[in-house]
Amino acid sequence: MNKIRISAVSYTNTKPFLYGLQHSDIMDQIDLSLDMPSDCAQKLIDDKADIGLIPVAATLSLPQWEIISAYCIGAVGAVKSVFIFSNCDIRQATKVQLDPQSRSSNNLAKVLLKNFWKVQPELIADAPDYASSDDENTAFVQIGDRTFGKPTRYKYVYDLAEEWKNFTGLPFVFAAWIANKPIPADFMVAFDKALKFGLDHRRELLKELPKHPDFDLEQYLMHNLDFDLTEDKKKALYLFLDYIKAL
Ligand SMILES: C=C(O[C@@H]1C=C(C(=O)O)C=C[C@H]1O)C(=O)O
């Protein structure tokens, strides 16, 4: 049988899932690659992967897709790794530079700017150095491990999962395990069992991970990230997709 090709996110947020997969027999059935989120999405769109932990915003570019797991990369309140960093209040920003590695958070920023903050800064998708600008009124989106320790460096810091909660009262789903074709049911059961093993062993995993001097990894993996794809998170996911379609 051909191996099932899986693209997972290469950030710390996905380490519990990797721990579970690497401690299970399912590794023999899969061909696993670790990619930045925008590439996870592109691999599923180009049919270079069968399953991806993809930014949920990218489902809008897939002709066929199905959620195949009860787990996700989500948050109920502040997530601590998805931000708009700014030197001015976001309502005064004239430009917002987007993170090329992101699909969901760039869209979340757009949804919040339009519907929550009700402002229309210029959105820049391909800034040569998107995370730095001399201009006081240029803000930027950034996701993942590159944000660790950064919130103290900016005058205005917006945690986008927290702002979404302020806006909608709902949790948020950044990425979900999505397939672009039917996947055998017995594989899905074994896959979720492996993911759950990883989540249940986060304390063991934490002992293996390098320490960050200015970031609380334990708080992040145990509390800020919320991995259960609950009914409320699904509701938030479909609401988010509706907001993106209306941009
Ligand atoms: C919480 C995070 O969620 C992520 C954000 C994503 C996006 O913006 O497209 C995609 C996958 C997740 O890794 C993060 O990266 O920090």
From TrEMBL:
Gene designation per UniProt: mqnA
Family per similarity comment: Belongs to the MqnA/MqnD family. MqnA subfamily.
GO biological process per UniProt: menaquinone biosynthetic process
Role description: Catalyzes the dehydration of chorismate into 3-[(1-carboxyvinyl)oxy]benzoate, a step in the biosynthesis of menaquinone (MK, vitamin K2).
Sequence intervals crossing the membrane: none
Xref: InterPro entries: Menaquinone_biosynth (IPR003773), MqnA (IPR030868)
PANTHER family linked to this entry: CHORISMATE DEHYDRATASE (PTHR37690)
EC class of the enzyme, as a word: lyase
Keywords per UniProt: Lyase, Menaquinone biosynthesis
Catalytic activity: chorismate = 3-[(1-carboxyvinyl)-oxy]benzoate + H2O
Pfam families given in the database record: VitK2_biosynth
GO molecular function: hydro-lyase activity
Protein name: Chorismate dehydratase
Signal sequence bounds: none
Organism: Mucilaginibacter pallidiroseus
Pathway entry: Quinol/quinone metabolism; menaquinone biosynthesis
Keyword Lyase: yes
Enzyme nomenclature, EC number: 4.2.1.151
Gene3D superfamilies for this protein: Periplasmic binding protein-like II (3.40.190.10)
